[in-house]
Amino acid sequence: MTESDPSETLFERIIAREIPADIVHETATTMAFRDISPQADTHVLVVPKTRYRNVGELAAADPALLADVIATAHRVAELDGLVDSGYRVVFNTGADAGQTVFHVHAHVLGGEQLGFFGRYRDEADDD
Ligand code: 5GP
């Protein structure tokens, strides 16, 4: 999906500045804004201004734009002072990964020691 109703997801409305967001960086092709429900001291979402549903579709259709997204993620890390301490870039893709917004976005996480990630653990599994 490359051409779609520009109002189809929340992130198109943020890019169009119809919905307010804490925008930390913007380029001709990307926008970075803070996640409304941060999971780390720094939790910023980086989106391409052109909509693809997920990172696989973006990589197949426009690898240069994917490179722009990664470069913006690194710029966000520079702006938040994370380059020396380290940071994580995550693309949730599909249901098992918990993707909820189907406009591809990179999560940039850092600013504190991050936990491990992977298999879902229920509290009951710890017994
Ligand atoms: P996903 O679960 O699709 O990988 O990530 C979607 C992210 O969008 C979530 O981390 C969620 O907190 C964030 N989010 C949802 N609604 C809004 C909003 O209105 N504004 C901002 N800035 N982030 C949002």
From TrEMBL:
This is Histidine triad nucleotide-binding protein. Transmembrane segments: none annotated. A motif (Histidine triad motif) lies at residues 103-107. InterPro entries: Histidine_triad_HIT, HIT-like, HIT-like_sf. It comes from Prauserella salsuginis. Residues 10-119 form the HIT domain.
